[in-house]
Write a structure and sequence with these properties.
With 1250 residues, the protein is α+β, with helices and mostly antiparallel strands. Helix content is 46%, strand content 15%. The chain has 43 helices and 35 strands. A 9-stranded mixed β-sheet has the order 14-35-34-33-15-29-32-31-30, with helices on both faces. A 9-stranded antiparallel β-sheet has the order 17-16-28-27-26-25-24-23-22, sandwiched between helices. A 6-stranded antiparallel β-sheet has the order 3-2-4-13-5-11, with no helix packed on it.
Length: 1250
């Protein structure tokens, strides 16, 4: 029975609940505690926006956020006022009802899909403990509450965020798959809360009386802070490894039990479910401005009509028709103003917004189904997560790219290493023998040292075969490691080419660190996971038998008062930090045959141990699931040298060591990698020496500062690091530290306190880790090859030719970044490097000024006097000579308020910028600086969690679904699988989307202004009374229906330039940006064109019918027909693509108009009072004059547009050919000819142009 008085001596105030969450089992009978649990959300989710009752008011309210909708509702209401009505009130409401209905139907369909999904999820079943029935019962997910105990089995989905209390695994772990949450398929390991009374046995929930205090719900997937307080007052810290998140799946674990902490919409999964991203495109912002110009134009027209009507009434004398003489001219003009607002309402394109949404959906459909953007190997295609910025892809000016996993494969190959200051080049690894290797999982055997030892003193044989994940061991390193295995070779001080004991210690510790300093999960095809038993793998007697062939020098007697042949004596000398005592291998007691028998005995022992643990006999059965490619590469490298990670549990690791066999390594602590420390550490008890050892791996810039500089190998290792970086290798340093027992106890107390803290937990854990990772002993360093993705150089070259500036923002060393820049053609041999590395703000300011002058002088030297049309080419060629390289420390200074303008000015004058050693925050700051200060369109592309910030800051964010999970993809606007897809996405789809949408918007404005002006010109001949010369139904439906579909088809299918040409000639992308399709000047040119065509369309029929007795509707019939033909054929002139779909839509649009007016003319008598359209259209279409007027009017109106378009196409073609010829002349020297020696190079651009 729970007692709130015993467990909770305070009342649960609102202030307390705001700070943290208290959870107790829901079976409590205490009323106060029950009320507390009821304050938390249930597990029922509801992602729908509407209910049956709220749909109408809520949807209408949302649609009223659009100014155009409010405007048309106002006009519809205004038309119900008798003194200002222009036509039947019911006709006026048709446009707004149609638009609102279409949008509402779309919203209903989307919400219904969400409702069905919610219903299925809420009705899923899980097993929940019932305190009344003392058993687990089936409950729907929606009925689960905070404090419930939930039991799950293998392959079941977790219904809510739960704290793991029990696992059927004897080690207290369970595995989960987080693919539903973050897209990652590799298994994650979760740990049962420590120090539970039923840990290791069957859980008894009636005896669970602990209280849980944790942080309030948040969306941070990688953080969970809290503690569990037992009834005796003992507190146990809770962390992220204890939490099972909703939507994840239980794997490789038979049964788990947890208590629900967060439920429903308070779970981390639901708090991260924000739906599709919404960004406003630059085109949409420009559109809103032009709509306001149309509003201003409408007001001017209405004011003109109001003033004209007032003057007309004032000057009217003895009218022959009935007029309102009681209303003053001023008041009549006021009424006419509002009447004209109703008549000319179509000037504001109400259907444009709906059309834009339809066009963007069509564009996304074609992008999504482009086979060129499909990755067959990964079965992955492009994802369009932001639905409303497709046109921004055609306006990119700056591209910011990560390096690792974005430009490179992020599939690491162990290439070189340096241990104890000695480099091992692994020359065989440098050969191009890795064709298409996978990641995380290995099904082929790695090259390893043979397990059998020859009877003579020959070196161990190497089994070299070109397979996936292979690491070909270095012969010299193999020779040294063979001394651990050989029973006949003596050790010396290293002077005669044989390794000394200290060097051998470094080598063994180095590979042991590679094997255990990670979070790799080990499994095999036949065995889901490896179990490390809690019993020791080898007794002292077993180890003694293994080392009985070793004897030590007389100096060994000085170390410890132990038996000379004991394993403790051997390991204390071999694995003690800072000791250099030597030892020798003694020959076998009898003969070579005996030695061989000893080797066979050891092999027999190893096989026996493997059978006891049910471990695979060969290395090829091991599967490594790593959270990063670096970890997998290092574990495979250690495996190649017979230092094999066999199994993992939260408390121990199973490792094979060369010449020793399987050992259990007690795992005390893991200090995971974070971006602040840039390193990872494990605290273990050494399996041989029994000492407490900290193994650390991390970035060389951090580890080298933490090592003891007195060691002689530090300087030599630094030279090797610099050499690796120049070769473009990723470098990691490996170090260790031996702890004293007292030192560890002191650190452990502080660390446990930090783990159990809720507030400032991250800062306390960081401080705790930094206290431990000091005075390290440098063991060595690794160089890992991360190859470029295919077609990266060609993609970057194409983007630069398209006028896009490419910046690389990476956390790697400067030398590595420069090497990669050369490899991907971002940096060419003729370019000049400008390196900015400073230690102070003043030095940074001075250097930036100096480099600005240098770039300016270089530009002046290269700038030659020429015609104005050549200046842009000269300018670009001068900028191409400079590449700016800046490190993270200096970037901090450069981004400060006083220096950022100088840094930005210098960067803009360079062809490219490389920011190395940059943090995620710095990446986002650089992107924001360029976006805000230059007003440029920016794109950021990355593949990891460290790229999320810059992806979100950029105008367009692109995530690459690579080897580092799906964090970047989930934060992006578009997701691709390879960097090369950027060229097709930007140069083709981006240009098409921008060109299509821009021209469609301009066309909408043109056709609306053109048709509205016809009504406006008519006012000059009817006393500005607001009278119409056409059927009111035709007036409403003309722009809303008859002419609205062709521009939509144009916006989806138009291709001004074929895709192949755009890919071959990236300069066309820059030409489209320079042409500025949708700018204020183009808007007003289209408006003027509309005015001209409206004048022709109105006055040609007017003069043709002058003096006749035609009525208003008869006069308007040829005007409407001519306007329809002009508008439709104008689009044909503007289009570069005409397919059968275009022709069909145009024909249907024209037929729908003529069919509608004929039907109205035949059957409608009172459709448009006070006018009677009966028989008007049938009479007009039966007369030849109607067709003559329509033909001449259409031809005259379209003639200037046709001539202008033809002339512009000719001028653009000639200008482009000249520009391409100049470009080819400037760049021909940089291109290698196609020959037998260079079969992979693409053909020169000269042949394409000619």
């Amino acid at each position: 029975m729970y007692s709130s008085k015993r467990l909770y001596p305070f009342r649960f105030t609102k202030e307390h609940l705001r700070k943290k969450r208290t959870v107790i089992p829901s079976s409590t009978e205490d009323e106060e505690l029950s009320q507390l649990l009821k304050l938390y959300n249930s597990n029922k989710i509801r992602t729908t926006k509407y209910s049956v009752l709220s749909f109408l008011p809520k949807n209408l309210f949302e649609q009223l956020h659009r100014f155009a909708n409010v405007y048309f509702i106002f006009l519809a209401a205004l038309n119900f006022v008798p003194v200002v009505e222009a036509f039947q009130p019911e006709v006026a409401v048709v446009p707004i009802i149609l638009v609102l209905s279409v949008t509402a139907v779309k919203d209903i369909w989307e919400d219904y899909r969400r409702f069905r999904s919610d219903h299925l999820i809420n009705r899923l079943l899980c097993r929940v403990y019932s305190s009344k029935q003392k058993a687990y019962i089936d409950k729907c997910w929606k009925d689960v509450r905070v404090g419930d105990f939930v039991r799950l089995s293998c392959n079941e989905i977790i219904p809510a965020d739960m704290l793991l209390l029990y696992s059927s695994d004897p080690r207290g772990v369970c595995y989960i798959e987080t693919a539903n949450l973050d897209g990652e398929t590799n298994l994650k390991q979760r740990q049962v809360v420590l120090d539970l009374p039923f840990q290791g046995g069957e859980i008894t929930l009636e005896n669970f009386h602990s209280r849980l205090e944790c942080e309030n719900p948040n969306n941070d997937l990688s953080r969970f802070r809290g503690y569990m307080e037992h009834p005796n007052g003992v507190r146990v810290g809770l962390h992220n490894n204890n939490l099972l998140l909703r939507s994840c799946t239980i794997r490789n674990t038979e049964t788990v039990v947890g208590i629900v902490i967060y439920a429903g919409h308070e779970t981390k999964a639901m708090m991260n479910n924000s739906g599709p991203r919404y960004k406003r495109s630059q085109l949409e912002k420009r559109l809103n401005t032009d709509v306001l110009w149309c509003v201003l134009l409408l007001i001017i027209m209405c004011l003109t009509a109001a003033v004209g009507h007032g003057l007309w009434l004032k000057n009217l004398k003895d009218p022959i028709f009935e007029t309102d003489t009681e209303t003053s001219p001023a008041l009549a003009g006021f009424y006419v103003f509002w009447t004209m607002i109703i008549v000319l309402q179509v000037l504001i394109p109400i259907s444009l917004y709906v059309s834009i949404e339809i066009v963007k959906l069509g564009q996304i459909y074609f992008i999504h189904n482009d086979l060129a953007l499909y990755n067959e190997q990964l079965d992955s295609r492009i994802q369009c997560r932001a639905l409303n910025i497709t046109e921004d892809l055609g306006q990119i000016q700056y591209l910011f790219s990560d390096k690792t996993g974005t430009l490179t494969e992020n599939k690491m190959v162990f290439r070189r290493c340096s241990i104890y200051g000695v480099e091992y080049p692994h020359k065989e690894n440098g050969k191009d023998q890795y064709h298409d290797f996978g990641f995380h999982r290995s099904t082929d055997p790695a090259v390893t040292l043979s397990s059998g030892f020859p009877s003579t003193g020959t070196l161990l044989s190497l089994h070299l075969c070109v397979q996936a994940k292979e690491v070909v061991p270095d012969p010299e390193l193999v020779r040294k490691l063979s001394w651990l295995c050989s029973p006949v070779k003596p050790l010396s001080d290293g002077s005669s080419g044989t390794p000394c004991s200290l060097e051998l210690t470094y080598i063994t510790d180095f590979f042991l660190a590679l094997a255990i300093c990670n979070s790799v999960v080990v499994s095999s095809p036949s065995q889901p996971r490896h179990v490390v038993t809690r019993t020791p793998l080898k007794s002292l007697e077993e180890i003694k038998l293994m080392f009985q062939r070793f004897s030590f020098s007389p100096f060994s007697a000085l170390s410890t008062p132990q038996l000379r042949g004991s394993p403790r004596s051997f390991t204390s000398r071999l694995f003690s930090r800072g000791k250099t005592g030597s030892f020798t291998f003694s020959p076998p007691p009898s003969s070579t045959t005996d030695g061989s028998e000893t080797g066979q005995e050891n092999n027999l022992e190893s096989s026996t141990l493997r059978r006891k643990l049910d471990l695979p006999d060969t290395d090829d059965e091991l599967l490594y699931e790593a959270e990063s490619p670096d970890e997998a590469a290092l574990v495979h490298a250690a495996q190649a040298y017979r230092c094999t990670l066999r199994g993992r549990s939260p408390e121990s690791l199973l490792v094979d060591l060369p010449g020793i066999g399987s050992l259990a390594v007690q795992l005390l602590h893991i200090l995971p990698f974070d971006s602040n420390r840039k390193r990872m550490s494990v605290v273990v008890r050494h399996p041989l020496s029994g000492q407490l050892v900290v193994y650390t791996k991390g970035a060389d810039s951090v580890i080298m500062d933490l090592t003891e500089t007195s060691k002689g190998n530090t300087e030599q290792t630094q030279k090797h690091l610099d050499s690796y970086a120049r070769e473009g290798l990723r470098t990691l340093c490996i170090a260790k530290k031996v702890l004293e027992e007292e030192e560890y106890e002191v650190w452990l107390k502080r660390h446990l306190l930090a783990e159990s803290s809720i507030e400032n937990r991250e800062e306390l854990l960081l401080d705790s880790a930094e206290r431990l990772e000091t005075n390290l002993t440098l063991l060595g360093t690794t160089g890992i090859l991360d190859r470029l993705q295919e077609e990266v150089p060609e993609t970057i070259e194409a983007l630069q030719r398209a006028g896009i500036k490419v910046w690389v923002l990476t956390g790697d060393k400067k030398e590595t970044a420069i090497n990669i820049a050369y490899a991907c053609k971002l940096l060419r041999p003729g370019d000049e490097l400008l390196t900015v590395t400073c230690g102070s703000k003043d030095a940074c300011a001075a250097l930036l000024q100096e480099l600005k002058l240098e770039v300016q002088r270089g530009g002046d030297r290269l700038m030659e006097p020429s015609a104005a049309e050549n200046r842009s080419e000269s300018s670009s060629s001068s900028a191409a000579d400079f590449i700016l390289v800046i490190d993270g420390c200096t970037l901090d200074w450069a981004l400060q308020e006083e220096l950022k303008s100088d840094f930005l000015e210098l960067s803009c004058r360079c062809k490219a910028v490389i920011c190395c050693r940059s943090t995620p925050l710095q990446k986002s700051q650089v992107v924001r600086l360029v976006r805000d200060q230059l007003g440029a369109m920016t794109l950021a592309v990355g593949d990891g969690a460290n790229d999320v910030s810059m992806i979100q800051v950029a105008d367009v964010g692109i995530g690459i679904s690579g080897q580092e999970g799906m964090q970047a993809v989930m934060s992006s606007d578009f997701a691709i699988s390879r960097f090369k897809h950027l060229s097709k996405l930007l140069l083709v789809h981006g240009r098409w989307c921008y060109s299509r949408l821009a021209n469609m918007i301009l066309y909408f404005f043109y056709k609306n202004v053109m048709y509205v002006n016809l009504l406006f010109w008519y006012q000059f001949f009817c006393g500005f009374s607001g009278a119409l010369m056409s059927n009111s139904w035709v007036l409403i439906l003309f722009n809303l229906l008859f002419t609205s579909v062709p521009p939509i088809i144009y916006g989806v299918l138009e291709r001004d330039v074929p895709a192949d040409t755009l890919m071959e000639l990236p300069e066309l992308y820059r030409a489209a940006q320079t042409a500025k399709i949708y700018v204020p000047s183009m808007f007003w040119i289209n408006i003027l064109d509309a005015f001209y065509q409206s004048l022709v369309c109105f006055f040609m029929p007017y003069f043709a019918l002058a003096g006749s007795d035609v009525g208003d509707l008869s006069f308007g019939s040829p005007i409407n027909a001519s306007a329809l033909l002009i508008i439709l054929l104008h689009q044909v002139i503007e289009s570069h693509t005409l397919t059968w779909i275009h022709m069909l839509v145009l024909a249907v649009s024209a037929a729908s108009y003529f069919g509608f007016v004929l039907l109205v003319s035949l059957f409608c008598v009172t459709c448009s009072p006070p006018l009677n359209p009966l028989g008007v259209e049938t009479l007009q279409m039966s007369q030849p004059l109607f067709y003559i007027i329509c033909t001449l009017t259409t031809a005259t109106a379209l003639l200037p547009s046709a001539l202008t378009t033809a002339q512009m196409d000719k001028v653009d073609s000639e200008r482009y050919c000249k520009r391409m010829q100049r470009w080819n002349q400037n760049h021909r020297v940089n291109r290698l000819p196609v020959s037998a020696d260079n079969p992979g190079l693409e053909r020169s651009i000269d042949t394409v142009v000619s």
